[in-house]
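Revision sheet: structure tokens.
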Amino acid sequence: MLHTTRKSTWRRSALLVIAAVLVMTVLAACGGKKDNEGSSGLTFAGAGEGTVVATYKDGTVTEPEFNKYLDIFNIMQPGYEQVIAIPQFKEQLLQQYVSYKILSAQASEATLKKAGDETDEQMKSFEDTLKTNADVKKTLDDKKVSNADVKTYLNLMLVVVEHMNSQVTDDEIKAEYEKNVGNYNPVTVRHILVATTDPADSTKTLRTKEEALARAKEVKAKLDAGGDWTALAKEYSDDTGSKDSGGQYADAKASDWVEGFKKAALTQEIGKIGDPVETEYGYHVVLVEKRDQAAYDKLTADQKSEVQSVVAYNHMNTFMTDEMPKQDVKITLPEAAESPGASTDASASPATSESPATSESPAANK
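Predicted:
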């Protein structure tokens, strides 16, 4: 429950789409096709048919095409059906779909081939899944989503990922690593969380901030006096992810943690129990046991790919803020009646997993 869940609206919604590439590894993709406007961007069945719901400099998106995109998005993100019904969020997804079509049209032949090769490998797993998992097949059938539709969706995602990765230079990777070296090296910490709200129900108050701070100071005093981390974590900690392991997170990524806890993990003196650290969860008593730091020239290919992914995300963000306004995008989605009980907050999202290590980069590590 230490990972960060607060993201900008664009970042959150963009990651939902890119996350499909990262977590739905049983699904596969294939090559794209020319759309009716002559763009080489990847499109779904229904392109060029029906009502136009978006136009941009080099093409259009029709309602059947976009609905197919949303159907597959729903399959891969089943917790988001109600959120997608929110007009603002639906419009954001359409904006993103337009941006992915534009970016896929910019991809080189080498990028298209690399994405195609990767997804061809995954196709075998996808076919095996359909043979053994009746639920997956039923979901596809119920939504009238074909294998080809799924292939197009994931190929679009993978082409965008590969295209953004291809824009990253070695100098940019090195600069990002040296600027944020703590984000890319493992750290081992122990902590005891004294929460202000119930981890299982954020609407339920456990104690006031003053009470939580007093309890955190109490447990710190016991630790300073030689108290046992294992026993005290079980007694005092409200972090269900670590209380039964002496409060330890071993060789973890500090970049995945909420800001206050991350700062303590990266700056607190090793081997010294710090004063209680406040986060949105409550107060943490933290002991940093180990921080590793590898020289850039000692990084493995996988580690460099992780840094590359972050730089690629920055390139994506730059594209969305600087280049998309130049594409003359006009959204003409039909107005829909608001679903009963649906929130009008476009930044709303379902509850997320409380895993302490969650990828937040827009590009898959290669």
